[in-house]
Amino acid sequence: MDENIVLTYGGCTGPDAEYIKLISSDGHEIYIKQKYTIVSKTIKEMLQTRKILNRGDENVVRFEDITSHLLVKVCQYFTFKAYYTSRHFQSVPRFKIDEAMMGDLLHVANILRC
């Protein structure tokens, strides 16, 4: 294989990017497929109302009120939902949430409208 060839898989730059970067209030960056985030009306509207991205612009959404441990759990839910709604299953397992997180996740669900 040619050493000068750079392979990319989707990326989060430009208007046709496959991924978006979510940044938590404590500065952690999480990359997730954009199509998984449509569960959230807030993220969907943020991406739709944003100016048309130039080729070099990143798809970035910052959350000033959501810490990284909660944002990771939300992204896990987005992926879980995308997986189980894109295929036919006889039964869908429950999405596991630690009881100590439930109150905070309910607040985040209200912010993200999902």
UniProtKB/TrEMBL annotation:
InterPro entries reported for this sequence: ELC1, SKP1-like, SKP1/BTB/POZ_sf, Skp1_comp_POZ
Report the locations given in the UniProt record.
Nucleus
Q: Which domain of life is it from?
A: Eukaryota
Using the record, list the residue span of the signal peptide; answer none if the entry has no such feature. none
Q: Does the keyword Nucleus apply?
A: yes
The Gene Ontology biological process annotation of the record reads: ubiquitin-dependent protein catabolic process
> Where do transmembrane segments lie in this chain?
none
Q: State the UniProt keywords alphabetically.
A: Nucleus
Q: One cellular component GO annotation, for this chain's record?
A: nucleus
Major location (coarse) = nucleus
Q: Enumerate the spans annotated as SKP1 component POZ domain.
A: 19-80
Similarity section: Belongs to the SKP1 family.
Q: What is this protein called?
A: Elongin-C
- What organism is this sequence from? Araneus ventricosus
